[in-house]
Design goal:
The complex is a heterodimer of chains A (330) and B (285). Chain A is mainly alpha-helical and 330 residues long. Chain A has helices spanning 2-29, 33-58, 67-84, 88-110, 115-135, 163-185, 187-197, 199-204, 209-235, 240-244, 246-259, 266-285, 289-307, 311-329, and strands at residues 145-146, 237-238. Chain A has a two-stranded antiparallel ribbon. Chain A is globular, with a radius of gyration of 20 Å. Classes of the chains: A mainly alpha (330), B mainly alpha (285).
């Protein structure tokens, strides 16, 4: 019996190691600049979607304005560099602190109310910040900010070529997933799932609902902010739309929801499918393709909501026994 | 004198905000559901008006009615095909359904109509009226008055008619309503039709006075959130007052601070409301 139970787990462990090996080797096998760029984009998408997943997936508090944390993370290092010449590396923790502070400011009032308030508040606050930043000259206004053009040292995080970024991003992704994995198995993870399935029931069983939701949001905001910082230093440029725009939030939601919100590898799977698709549609249709990409995104989100709210992982979990049985029969 | 003109203009625009926000608050009150695509319904109403004028040469009455009917039909279709299946499902599915719909409608509109701003060709509502020394565009006055009338009519429909009682009965207790011989699905489809129809007419009214592009849906959607948050979720009368207040605040802050800052003031008000009085002026917690 024990052996039987351990078997799928060891199978999973093997696939996780295979995945890790594939991700480590990818840029060495595909050394072309284009493929490395796709790889870096994929990792960034996977990091931010996994960060969103902590509060949106596990706790079931659907934020549609996570770009506010992403933008804060992207702006802070570049702002401190522009104002005082700080190395971007020093600005990243400040961005994380600001994001956690913002998370508390939003979470405190809205988590007293039903989940819809939280969703509405996130989209409105993200929009408020985007417009505000666009009118504020100190932070670059509508034009935005630039990072260091030439590195003064490794702490400027300004590298030629994508390879250093790739491995930094991969390390951060591993960290996010490791933290999520650890939470999943602790009491905190059970609290989150209890809140997701029924807040009232969780409260009646003594789960400190508001505090747990707030902690999940703060953790999610911290990682999202880090993702934004990585984007900022990698691109070396940030403006209100690429930092705080609604599409930044949309991507996090759709990557996580397609793969499976509230599963460890769901956001990764979503990014693995959609990032190449997005790159392909931009290459095929040129600049005009980006509009079409978002038509497609909208369509995918609607279809997920209507037919598979659990995402692809959930679909697989239901289909896998049937397929296995058919394979045995054949 | 300029200030009075600004105030009256703000109230007239606020009345149109009230009309489309009453559609959003209706869905929230009846179904406990937030429609992220509501602003896109307003935007589509504007394009329906444009198409009716350009293709059919219709006047204001024709394109207003066309926008109402087209959006009513869209609202019913959206309910039947999408919302009905997710509304009792998990929270994630509820929010994703209307959020995805918003993206789909917005970017399809970008694709079809391009991102350029358009405006209605000259209609019979051109020109200005002078009342007591202030000058207002006819289109704006008509839009404001029609919007107030329709919002009050919607309020009366909900509170004074048998149909309104049926809608409320379904919202109160689905099963009990069914036992009384009311068909919940039909009532909720009607709710979606009314909601989208109100957004459609509001769009047609706005189209007479302002140029627009597909991205206005996002702006109006957020404005509707702010209005509903101020007026209280589920209260049509509340959203009438709130719409007027927000129109006024917008006009005055645009006049004193500049047009870019009016959005900051309005969204700032929303954030302040969330902290101080999340149930709104007239709402229940």
């Amino acid at each position: 019996m024990k052996k039987l139970l351990a078997q799928p787990a060891s199978g999973q462990r093997v696939s996780v190691w295979l995945l890790a090996a594939a991700l480590v080797l990818y840029p060495l096998v595909f050394s072309d600049a284009f493929y490395r760029d796709v790889g870096v984009t994929f990792l960034l998408a996977a990091i931010s979607a996994s960060a969103w997943n902590i509060v949106g997936g596990y706790a079931g508090q659907v934020s549609v304005g996570h770009s506010m944390f992403f933008g804060l993370g992207a702006y802070t290092p570049l702002l401190f560099y522009t104002l005082w010449g700080w190395p971007p590396l020093a600005g990243i923790p400040v961005g994380i602190l600001l994001s956690v502070g913002l998370a508390v400011v939003i979470g405190l009032p809205t988590f007293r109310l039903s989940g819809h308030y939280f969703s509405m508040a996130t989209i409105a606050v993200a929009e408020l910040i985007r417009i505000f930043v666009g009118t504020w000259a100190l932070v670059g206004g509508a034009i935005g900010l630039q990072g260091p053009a030439m590195a003064r040292g490794w702490w400027d995080l300004t590298f030629r070529g994508d390879l250093p970024y790739y491995y930094i991003f991969l390390a951060v992704l591993a960290l996010v997933l490791a933290v999520t994995f650890a939470l999943e198995r602790r009491r905190f993870g059970y609290y989150l799932r209890a809140i997701k399935s029924s807040e009232r029931a969780a409260r009646s069983l003594g789960v400190p609902v508001r505090r747990v939701k707030l902690q999940a949001l703060a953790l999610s905001a911290a990682f999202t902010s880090a993702a934004g910082s990585l984007y900022g230093v990698k691109t070396g440029f940030i403006d209100p739309d690429s930092g705080f725009g609604i599409l930044v939030s949309v991507q996090m939601v759709i990557f996580a929801a397609l793969g499976g919100a509230g599963t460890l590898f769901g956001p990764l799977l979503g990014a693995l499918i959609l990032v190449p698709l997005q790159t392909a549609s931009n290459t095929w249709f040129g600049g005009g393709g980006s509009g079409l990409t978002f038509v497609l995104y909208g369509g995918i989100i609607v279809l997920i909501a209507r037919f598979e709210p659990g995402g692809l992982f959930d679909l697989w979990r239901r289909l896998a026994p049937h397929l296995r049985r058919r394979a045995h029969a054949a | 004198m300029v200030l009075i003109q600004v105030i009256v203009g703000g109230l007239l625009l606020g009345a149109v905000y009230a009309l489309f926000s009453s559609g959003l608050t209706l869905i929230w009150g009846m179904m406990n559901f937030i429609n992220f695509a509501h602003g896109e319904f307003v935007m589509l109403g504007m394009y329906v008006a444009l198409l009716v004028v350009v293709w059919l040469g219709g006047g204001p009455a024709a394109f207003g009615l066309a926008a109402a009917i087209a959006l009513f039909a869209l609202g019913v279709a959206v309910y039947a095909l999408l919302i009905r299946h997710v509304v009792r499902g998990p929270m994630l599915a509820q929010i994703l359904s209307s959020f995805g719909l918003a993206l789909l409608l917005r970017y399809t509109a970008f694709w079809i109509f391009s991102a350029n701003f358009v405006s209605l060709p000259q209609t019979s509502l051109a020109g200005t009226v002078a009342v007591g020394g202030i000058y207002l565009p006819v289109a704006q006055v008509v839009a404001g008055l029609v919007a107030v009338t329709l919002t009050i009519a919607l309020h009366l429909l909900l509170t004074r008619s048998t149909l309104g009682s049926r809608l409320l009965a379904v919202a109160e207790d689905r099963t009990a309503a069914m036992l009384m011989g009311i068909r919940p699905d039909r009532m909720q489809a009607l709710t979606w039709g009314l909601s989208a129809g109100a957004a459609g007419i509001a769009g047609a009214l706005l189209a007479t006075a302002y140029p627009w592009s597909p991205s206005v849906g996002e702006t109006f959607g957020l404005l509707a959130f702010v209005t509903v948050a101020l007026g209280g979720f589920g209260s049509v009368l509340g959203s009438l007052y709130a719409g007027l207040i927000i129109g006024l605040i917008e006009a005055i802050s645009a006049y004193w601070l500049g047009a870019i800052y009016k959005d900051i003031v309005v969204y700032g008000l929303f954030v302040a409301l969330l902290w101080l009085r999340p149930q709104g002026l007239m709402g229940k917690a």
